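Please think about what follows:
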Amino acid sequence: MSNIEQYQGNLQYAVDIVLCVDATGSMFPVLDNVKASALQFHDRLNDVMAKKGKAISQLRLKVIAFRDFGDTAAAPLEQTGFLHLPAQAQEFQEFVRGIDAIGGGDIPESGLEALALAINSPWERGLDRRRHVIVMFTDAPAHALGTVGAASPAYPNGIPRNLDELFEQWGYARSQTAVMEQSAKRLVLFAPDEAPWSDPIAEEWDLTLHFASKAGEGLEEFEMDEIIETIANSL
């Protein structure tokens, strides 16, 4: 019996999660922790939801592994489409386990390009209630949009030219150009306490939660629990 059949008659919750993972060399000490946390997302979220007397009818995860478009040592971007869990768990696990921490070049990375791709994902629009969550894992600041590597054939099409345009896509209460659904969206940052993550994003973007990270320090258990609780409590 599927989750949807099992909970027929109750509200059906659709949860989409995009994990943006910094896969540069500086993340080597912590990437295994991030990958292990990603692989536990499905079971841990289901457990927390069950304790609240709720169930997820549809869970989809997408992964965007990013490095630096200014560095040619490794692919600057690797990503999946949305994968249905648990049905596509093996495909999800194979991709996550295959992420290697290499390259990166200078200190800032291409995290804003990854965030732009995440915001413009093909989010679920059906079922009774939806939650669209972007989780960013990085230990570095980010290059300004449209600057480093923008002329490269590998640079994604349609990336906003600056942070203000990206904010317009994220949207706000009365935004006319938002691509995110206001009532569904959440942004969770595990990122340094510096630009652009702390300010302006964490300071000015609504529905954003920021955990300050430091280079070489892993994702602590309580922080992952906080992320899981944030998703569960918002449904």
Q: What stands out?
A: The longest helix spans residues 28-51. The first strand starts at residue 13 and ends at 22. Residues 1-9 have pLDDT under 50 and may be disordered.
